[in-house]
Amino acid sequence: MYVSLFIGCAIVLDIYCYTLYGHLHVNVSFDGQWCQLKAYLFYVSGCGFFYSYLLQAIYRLCRITLFRKPSLQTFRLYVCGIVVQWLLSFVQVIPVLLLGTFEYLPHDYHCQIAIHNVRGLLIGLALVHTIPISLTTMCYAYTMFYIQKISATIKTARQLATDQRDFLVLKRIFIVLTTLIASGMPAFSIGLYFQFTGHLPYWSTQFQWLSATFAMLIVSIILIFVSPNVPKFRMYFAQ
User: Fold this and answer.
1) DSSP alpha helices (H): ranges in the chain?
2) Element (H, E) at 116
3) Which domains does the chain possess?
4) 3-state SS class at 112
5) pLDDT tens track for 189-236
6) At how many degrees (to 10) do helices 33-65 and 75-98 cross?
7) Tens of pLDDT along 185-198?
8) Is the pTM of this model over 0.85?
């Protein structure tokens, strides 16, 4: 999760540097394979970020619903899961690249899915966001159903308390994903507005990146409180 977040932030910083340089040297162009590759890696990092939450959701699901199978909770298994997570991320974004969805924006000096390209936005949404978010939501829904309908009849009070803690973490993961989805809706709405009116505000791309940056900030803050080690740090510094 943190690796994908770091890669995404590094690419965003690189994009800002290119954009700033382009505004200072208006005749320059950065169109090319490297521009396309950076856009591809940015979406790979985003896909990997969502899959990291799916992996956490699967872990919590196994701890709660499959607690009698410790083999599904081993460290080695989830290391393999991380490898699979990144393989899926690289593979899923390849169609976005091959379909020519990434465009060079001459006024912004970088490549991305243009905000007026609703087809491209839908392809990116389907391949990058929908699959991991849908699976994570299914894990969340089934875990909630299990705790409410089944868990109380077969587990001890101590096990139920552990389940509640795991479910709380899973709930916070769902809140983070909801925040990320909500952050992308304004940009998507601008794309739909362009389809109906043929008018695209000049600040649309900047607004898209502003909403994405704001979402990263919110997620970073939420992650501080989601982390199970935060109470330990508080107790340590309170001493």
Assistant:
1) 2-24, 33-65, 75-98, 118-124, 131-146, 152-154, 157-197, 204-226, 230-238
2) none
3) 2-234 (1.20.1070.10)
4) strand
5) 777 777 777 777 767 777 777 777 777 677 667 666 655 554 544 454
6) 140
7) 776 777 777 777 77
8) no
